[in-house]
Amino acid sequence: MVPIQITNGHAKNKRYDLNQFVISLISSSHADFPLWMSVLSGNTSDKKHFREVIQQFSKELSQSDTVTYFVMDSAMYNDPNIKAMSPLVKWISRVPETINEAKTLIEGICVEDMIKSDLEDIFIRNFQVHMEDLIKSGWLFFQRRV
Q1: In what order do the strands lie in the sheet containing 135-144?
Q2: Which of 10, 141, 142 is nearest to 75 (CA)?
Q3: In contact, 134 and 115? CB cutoff 8 Å
Q4: Contact criterion met (CB below 8 Å) for 84 and 107
Q5: pTM of the predicted model, to two decimals?
Q6: Residue 2: its pLDDT value, please?
Q7: Residue 128 phi, psi dihedral angles, 5° rounding
Q8: Which residue, 8, 25, 78, 118, has fewest beta-carbon neighbours within 10 Å?
Q9: Distance between CA 124 and CA 96 in Å, rounded?
């Protein structure tokens, strides 16, 4: 086992004066019961680590018939991760607004093309997106109009 480094990393709370470490956790949707955990150095990249975790944990999942969805933040959403994880598991993530496809879709959406949801002032639109002819994914765009 390799010891972790408690060190400077990406401080989301802007506290760059504090050292940190990372806890990588997979929990069940029922009662948030922890299923898998690892502790990592404070400068570990989410973008690379998501792929490693899914590859390791999917081996354990392959022994079950249960359909499992992974819900991850937008750090997961990049080409290497999508290509590595899509054959292994089903996943849900927020698409970063910084990628070109998302920018183009957001700029071209009219409220007339959207469906009003049951939630107050929320409109939605579904898109099918193909990534390099390998992976078909659905994007659901939410927008609040007041």
Answers
A1: 115-116, 122-131, 135-144
A2: 10
A3: no
A4: no
A5: 0.67
A6: 76
A7: -100, 130
A8: 118
A9: 17
Buried b (16+ CB within 10 A) or exposed e, 51-81: bebbeebeeebeeeeeeeebebeebbbeeeb
DSSP letter for 90, please: E
DSSP class of 78: S
8 Å CB contact between 45 and 63: no
Give backbone dihedrals phi and psi of 46, rounded to 5 degrees, phi first.
-55, -40
pLDDT tens figures, 6-53: 987 777 788 888 898 888 888 877 778 888 888 888 888 877 887 888
Could you please report the per-residue DSSP string of 4-62?
Answer: P--B----TTS-TTS-BEEEEEEE-SSTT-EEEEEEEETT--HHHHHHHHHHHHHHHHT
Rg (CA), the chain: 18
Return d(Cα 124, Cα 127) in angstroms, integer. Answer: 10
Structure tokens at 10: 């990406």
